[in-house]
C-alpha cells in the first residue's frame, strides 16, 4: 500500500526523534540507578571521583612543570658548554690554531654523551673545527627550527629537527678583546630529556596509583565512619515508626552526628513517654466510649420491658460466635459495639408499635422496619461511628434476598450483619414477647436450623448451635427468658 505524505512525514519525525528519546531514556535509567545506590557507596564514589580528578590534574601539572624544568636544565647545561668552549676558542681562532679548536670540540663531545655535535665557526659561517671532522672547512648551514630565546650576551637557543630527533642548538658568540670572531654551536639531543620525562611520568603514575588505592580505602573507611551513626539513626526511626521501644541509640563520636544521635535519643524518650500517656488516655477514652454505648443500648432496650438487656445479650452471643470463626481481637471489639448499636434506630420508633401485643398492620410494619434506616441516620452524624453502619443497616437482610432494607442476599450481606442476625434471632426466640411466649433453647436451636439457608447463613448457624450445645453441656440450664436459673 502506498504511503501518503503525512505518513511519510510522521515516520521521518519518529526516526529523527528516536535517538534523543533513547538518550533521555538512558539518562533517566542512570539517574534512577544512582538514586537506588546506598549512601555509603555514593560517598565513597564521590570521594574517589574527586580525588581521582584532583590527582590526575595535579599529575598533569607536575609532569608539565618537570618537563619545563628538565628542558631548562638541559638548555642551561648546553649554554654552559658553549660559553666554556667560546671562552677558550677566542685566542685559537685568532691565531688560527686549528688543533686547539679541534681539541676543544672533541673534549666537549667526548665528555657529554648527549652532545649531538659541537662546532666553531667564523663570522662568515666557515667551520674551523667540528666534532665530525668531515665537516671542517665547510660552510655551516643553520637547519630550520624554532627560536626558543636569545640571551643578553647574544647567545641564541633554537630547537631544530635532526635525523634522529629534535635537538637544542645553542649558538654562543666567540669574543676576544671585545671583538666578535665567530661562534660556537653546540647541539644537545633530547634523548636525556625524553628519558627523564619517561622516568618522571612513571614515578608520578606509580605515586598516583598508590594515592588512588589509599584514597579509595580511606574513602570507604570515611563512608563507613559517616554511615554507621546514620544507619543507627535510620534504624531508630524505623523502630519509632513501628512503635518498638528499645535501648537508646549508641553514640559513636562527639561531633555533629554524635550530637544528632544524642538529640534523637532525647526526642525518642520524650515521644515514648508521651505515647505511653496517649495510650493510657486512648484506653480510658475507649472504655468510656464503650460504657456510653452500653448505656445507650440499655436505654433503647428499656423502651420495651420485653427486650430489656437484648442488645447486651446479642453482643455476648455474637462475640462468642466471632471468636469461634476466628475473628481478631480488634474485629471482636468492633462486632461488640456494632451489636450494641444494632437497634439504635428504635429510639425513633413509637412505643405503641414496640409494645403492641398483636401483629402489626402494613403501615405499622413499614414504620417498624424503618428503624434500620433511622439507626444509619443516627450513626452517620458521627464519623467515628460510620464503620458500624453496614452491620446496623443490614442485620435484617436474608440469605434468599427477601429481607430489608436493600434485599441483599448471600455473600453480599456483610459478615457482621450475618453474625448479628443469628444471635438476634436466637435471643428473640428465647425471650418473651407481647404476642408470644419464649421458646426453649432446644426449640430455638431447631428453628434456627430450619430457617438456615433461606434466612440465615447455614455455616454460621451450625457453629452457633455447637457453641450453645457446648455451653449447655458445661453450664446450668437457661430459663425461657434466656437467663441462667
Tally of separate helices: 14
Tell me the count of domains: 2
Computed Rg: 53 Å
Might you state the CATH topology name of the largest domain?
Beta-Lactamase
CATH superfamily of the largest domain: PAS domain
Indicate the overall shape. Answer: rod-shaped
Distance between the first and last residues' Cα? 94 Å
Q: How are the strands of the largest sheet arranged? A: 2-1-6-5-4-3
- Runs in which pLDDT lies below 50 for 5 or more consecutive residues are 11-16, 477-485
Strand content: 5-15%
Query: Portion of residues in helices?
Result: 55-70%
- Secondary-structure class: alpha+beta
Structure, explained:
The protein has two domains: 37-246, PAS domain (Beta-Lactamase), CATH 3.30.450.20; 303-474, Orthogonal Bundle (Hypothetical protein af1432). 62% of the residues lie in helices and 10% in strands. The chain has 14 helices and six strands. It has a six-stranded antiparallel β-sheet with strand order 2-1-6-5-4-3. Strand 5 and strand 6 (179-189) form a beta hairpin. The longest helix has 56 residues, at 39-94. The radius of gyration is 53 Å and the shape is rod-shaped. The protein starts with a helix and ends in an 11-residue tail after the last helix. The model is unreliable at 11-16 and 477-485 (pLDDT under 50).
Amino acid at each position: 500500500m502506498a504511503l501518503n505524505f503525512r505518513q511519510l512525514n510522521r515516520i521521518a519525525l519518529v526516526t529523527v526523534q528516536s535517538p534523543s528519546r533513547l538518550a533521555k531514556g538512558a539518562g533517566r535509567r542512570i539517574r534512577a540507578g544512582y538514586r537506588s545506590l546506598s549512601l555509603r557507596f555514593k560517598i565513597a564514589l564521590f570521594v574517589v571521583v574527586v580525588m581521582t580528578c584532583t590527582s590526575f590534574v595535579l599529575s598533569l601539572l607536575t609532569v608539565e612543570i618537570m618537563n619545563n624544568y628538565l628542558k631548562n636544565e638541559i638548555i642551561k647545561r648546553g649554554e654552559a658548554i658553549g660559553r666554556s668552549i667560546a671562552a677558550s676558542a677566542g685566542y685559537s681562532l685568532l691565531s688560527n690554531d686549528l688543533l686547539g679548536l679541534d681539541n676543544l670540540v672533541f673534549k666537549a663531545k667526548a665528555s657529554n654523551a648527549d652532545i649531538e655535535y659541537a662546532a666553531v665557526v667564523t663570522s662568515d659561517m666557515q667551520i674551523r673545527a667540528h666534532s665530525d671532522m668531515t665537516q671542517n672547512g665547510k660552510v655551516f648551514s643553520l637547519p630550520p627550527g624554532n627560536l626558543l630565546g636569545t640571551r643578553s650576551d647574544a647567545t641564541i637557543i633554537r630547537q631544530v629537527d635532526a635525523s634522529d630527533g629534535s635537538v637544542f642548538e645553542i649558538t654562543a658568540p666567540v669574543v676576544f678583546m671585545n671583538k666578535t670572531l665567530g661562534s660556537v654551536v653546540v647541539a644537545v639531543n633530547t634523548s636525556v630529556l625524553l628519558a627523564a620525562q619517561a622516568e618522571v611520568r612513571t614515578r608520578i603514575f606509580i605515586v598516583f596509583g598508590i594515592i588512588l588505592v589509599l584514597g579509595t580505602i580511606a574513602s570507604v573507611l570515611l563512608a563507613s565512619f559517616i554511615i554507621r551513626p546514620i544507619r543507627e539513626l535510620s534504624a531508630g526511626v524505623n523502630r519509632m515508626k513501628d512503635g518498638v521501644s528499645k535501648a537508646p541509640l549508641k553514640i559513636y563520636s562527639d561531633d555533629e552526628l554524635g550530637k544528632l544521635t544524642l538529640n534523637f535519643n532525647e526526642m525518642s524518650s520524650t515521644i515514648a513517654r508521651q505515647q505511653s500517656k496517649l495510650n493510657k488516655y486512648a484506653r480510658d477514652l475507649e472504655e468510656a466510649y464503650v460504657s456510653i454505648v452500653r448505656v445507650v443500648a440499655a436505654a433503647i432496650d428499656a423502651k420495651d420491658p420485653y427486650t430489656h438487656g437484648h442488645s447486651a445479650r446479642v453482643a455476648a452471643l455474637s462475640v462468642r460466635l466471632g471468636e469461634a470463626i476466628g475473628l481478631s481481637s480488634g474485629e471482636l471489639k468492633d462486632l461488640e459495639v456494632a451489636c450494641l448499636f444494632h437497634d439504635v434506630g428504635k429510639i425513633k420508633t413509637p412505643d405503641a408499635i414496640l409494645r403492641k401485643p398483636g401483629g402489626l398492620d402494613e403501615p405499622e410494619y413499614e414504620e417498624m422496619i424503618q428503624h434500620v434506616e433511622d439507626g444509619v441516620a443516627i450513626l452517620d452524624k458521627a464519623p467515628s461511628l460510620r464503620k458500624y453502619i453496614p452491620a446496623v443497616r443490614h442485620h435484617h437482610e436474608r440469605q434468599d434476598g427477601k429481607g430489608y432494607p436493600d434485599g441483599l442476599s448471600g455473600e453480599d450481606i456483610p459478615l457482621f450483619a450475618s453474625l448479628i442476625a443469628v444471635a438476634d434471632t436466637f435471643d428473640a426466640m428465647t425471650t418473651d414477647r407481647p404476642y408470644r411466649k419464649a421458646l426453649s433453647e432446644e426449640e430455638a436451636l431447631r428453628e434456627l436450623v430450619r430457617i438456615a439457608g433461606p434466612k440465615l447463613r447455614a455455616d454460621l448457624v451450625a457453629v452457633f448451635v455447637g457453641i450453645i450445645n457446648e455451653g449447655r453441656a458445661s453450664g446450668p440450664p437457661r430459663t425461657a427468658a434466656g437467663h441462667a436459673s
